[in-house]
Amino acid sequence: MAGLNLKNLYKSFGAVEVIKGVDLDIDHGEFVVFVGPSGCGKSTLLRMIAGLENITEGELFIGETLCNNVEPRDRGIAMVFQSYALYPHMTVYDNIGFGLKLARAPKEERDRKVREAARMLQLEPLLDRKPGQLSGGQRQRVAIGRAIVRQPEVFLFDEPLSNLDAALRVSMRQELTKLHHDLDATMIYVTHDQVEAMTMADKIVVLNGGVVQQVGAPIDLYQDPANLFVAGFIGSPKMNFIEVTAKTVGKGEVLVQSDVIGEISVPLNSDRVKTGDKLTLGIRPHALSRSDDGPFSGQVELVERLGNETVVNFTLSNGSAWMAVLDGDEPLKLGSEVRFSADVGAICLFDAAERRIR
Ligand SMILES: Nc1ncnc2c1ncn2[C@@H]1O[C@H](COP(=O)(O)OP(=O)(O)O)[C@@H](O)[C@H]1O
Ligand SMILES: [Mg+2]
What pLDDT shows up at residue 127? Predict the structure, then answer.
C-alpha cells in the first residue's frame, strides 16, 4: 500500500493550462474521489498520476518515490477506464489473467490470483464465457479483476460506471466500496456524479477549472462548503441561490435585502461584510418549509409527489428556478403561488468573491 503526495502540479496542453497548481495528500488505504463538472481536469490529473500524461510542473510522490519520470508500469498502479476494452476472443479467465501471463507469472500463481479475483467479484460462474456473452456490469467487473490480479499499490478509476444503467450503477458502487474494504488498497476514483462521490468517498476533492476548490469528508463538504461552487455542486437537489445586498450591518447580524425576497436578518460576524456589499444567499431545498408569511415565494412549475416527500420546482419573481423538498405529501397545484420559510440557521451567505461567509 502507498499514499500519494501531489505538490503544486501543473499541466498545460500547448498554451492551454488545464491543471493549475494542485496540492493534495492521500493516505494509505484512502478512497479518494475527484469530482467536478465535465472538462474540469479530473481525467488529466488521474492520467498524470498514472504516468499517461507528463507533468508540466510540480512533483508527484507515490509512497516515498518521486514519480515524475517513472514509467507507468513501474508506478505500482492499475487503472480502470470507463470503456473496459476487454479482448473479445478471450474468456473471462484469460482476460483477467492476461497481464500476469505477459509478466510470465508461473501458471499456478496465475491460476490462484485469477480465481481469487473472480471470487471477490462474483465472476466464478462466468470464467469460461467471452466478453460478448456478458452484461455491461459483468464486463466492468472483469476489467476490475484485471486490475486486482496485478496487486497494485494504488487503483485508479476513471468514471468506471458511467456506461451502466442507473440500477446497476448503484449496485456496482456498493460492490466497489466493499472491494475497497476487502483489499485495503488506496483508490482514486473520478466521477462527475456527486452522489457517487458522496456515497463512496472517504475524502472528496472538488475540482473546477483545474483548481482544487475544497478537500474533505463528504459530510463536511455538504455541511460546510468553502465557496459558492462547492455549495452548488455538492448536494442533491442543488442549493438555491439569490443575490442580495447587505442593507444594514449590526452587532452580530446583518440585514440582507432584495426586491424578490424582501429583508432577512441573518446572524453574522459583522467584520466580514459592510453596508452595500453584494452577497449571494443560499438555501438547500430540504431546508425550506411551507409558511404563509415566509420570505421565499414563487409560482409552482412542477410537483413530484413521491409519497414520503414532495419535490416542488418553483420560479421566483426574478425568474430564478428554485426547488423545495417537503416532508410527506403536498398536493400543490401547478401555476399556484407558494410561500416558504427557512430556519435562519440554514441560510448560507457568500461574498462577492464567492467565498462562504456563513
Ligand atoms: N490531449 C489533450 N490536448 C489538448 N487538450 C486536452 C487534452 N486532454 C484534455 N484536454 C483538455 O483539458 C481539459 C480537461 O480535460 P479532462 O481532464 O478530460 O476533463 P474531465 O475529465 O474533468 O472531464 C478540457 O478542456 C480538455 O479539452
Ligand atoms: Mg474525464
Answer: 97
